[in-house]
Automatic annotation (TrEMBL):
One Pfam family from the record: DoxX
UniProt entry tagged with the keyword Transmembrane helix: yes
Transmembrane parts of this sequence: 7-23, 43-61, 66-84, 96-116
Membrane topology of the entry: Multi-pass membrane protein
Localisation: Membrane
Name used for this protein in its record: DoxX family membrane protein
Keywords: Membrane, Transmembrane, Transmembrane helix
Lineage: superkingdom: Bacteria
InterPro entries assigned: DoxX
The keyword Membrane is assigned to this record: yes
Amino acid sequence: MKKHIPLALRIIVAIILIQTLRFKFTAHPDSVYIFETVGLEPFGRIGIGVLELIAGILLLIPKTVWLGASITIGVISGAIFMHLTKLGIDINNDGGILFFTAVATFVLSAIILYIYRKDIPFINK
């Protein structure tokens, strides 16, 4: 059972990251609004989407889980910061779903990184 929990966490975070890509890559009005508000439309929207795609893939490859979790923490930290400074918690009356999903993704990624800390090559050599 213990070995299945880290895998489940990795899959959950990868699904969260990858499912948001359709909004970023198709220029969904909500995604465009968010990135316009923070001054990163369109290059930030697409660039962050690419980073999230890379992180999602890396989370699913056993040798690169630590890197995927690290990238996720970095990207999601930016999202949380933007929510707290420019966007607010509730975007377009979503009830805070985007913000709370970002927080959950951050926490799960931190747990994943902790679990796979021994795999980080430049720390454990």
